[in-house]
Amino acid sequence: FTNYLLYYTVVPNPNLDSETSKSFEFGLRGFGESNNWDLAFYRNEVNGFIRYEIIGFSQGLGVYQYNNVENVEMDGLEFSYKKELSANLSFNTALAISKGEEIEKGIRTPMIETDPRELILGLDWTSSNEKFGLQALYSLTSKSKDNLDPVCLNDSCTPRVATGGYGVIDIFGFYNPGDHIEVRLAIENLTDKKYFRWASVSQLPEDDAELDLYGQSGRALSASFKYKF
Q1: Phi, psi at residue 212, to the nearest 5°?
Q2: What domain count does the chain have?
Q3: Beta bridge partners of 124
Q4: Mapping DSSP to helix (H, G, I), strand (E, B) and coil, where does residue 161 land?
Q5: pLDDT digits (tens, 9 = 90+) for 155-186
């Protein structure tokens, strides 16, 4: 498969094996008169973890392939909290933390695919007649992990790209003038922040000439109209 628009091609791997895994999860949930929260811990142990990685370049295209990692262990924590500040206004937050290690021939190294820590802060307001509503979200993401293995292509190795921490503000609104009509508006990345999601660039070397193609969208305005019969 080749995508000339995004400059990459995927080649088959006849030696690819299927994954096997064991997963464990433990959760707690709490409720109050004006608040509620959820807390979950999880652990995944994967044998033959399938990784999508860049293995070289050919005719200006990045060459990708699915390959197996001997063993992978992933641990994580997810927490969410919601507080009703008034009849119309509520505050909510969510936190996600994950840690992963690869185990090859008994040697442990940080897992490349592990997402950076993420914290989301939000405010929700709805009018008393429920015809208007606004939501503001502030998403904070930490920088990528240090000391990850370099990217080795065509018998040479280059440091892996690193992503800095960033914060993104999104605003959403709705208006329901009647029982059958719904109008929605959104302003995403309000401050026009330039940033990269780790999942999009984790397999790239820091000197990749096409790195900017993997950046997330800048400020974007969208609207939708729905009529219910």
Answers
A1: -60, -25
A2: 1
A3: 90, 135
A4: coil
A5: 788 899 999 999 999 999 999 988 889 999 99
Contact 175, 130 (CB under 8 A): no
Q: What is the pLDDT of residue 182?
A: 93
Q: Give the separation between CA 149 and CA 195, rounded to whole angstroms.
A: 22
| 60's tokens | 């200006």
Cα 43 from Cα 200, distance rounded (Å): 23
User: What share of the chain in percent tops pLDDT 70?
Assistant: 98
Neighbours of 210 (CB within 10 A): 13
Residues spanned by the domain of 144: 2-227
Residue whose pair of structure tokens reads 């000339």 in the numeric block: 4
Question: CA-based angle 65:71:73, to the nearest 5?
Answer: 110
Q: 135 pLDDT exceeds 90?
A: yes
The set of residues, in sequence order, having a beta carbon less than 8 Å from that of 55 and lying 6+ positions away, is 11, 63, 64, 65, 67, 153
First to last CA, the chain: 43
Strand, coil or helix: what is 83? strand
Distance CA 159, CA 143 (A): 16
Q: In 3D, which of 143, 200, 189 has the Cα closest to residue 166? A: 143
The CATH code of the domain that includes 32 is 2.40.170.20
Can you read off the two tokens belonging to residue 129?
A: 């007649």
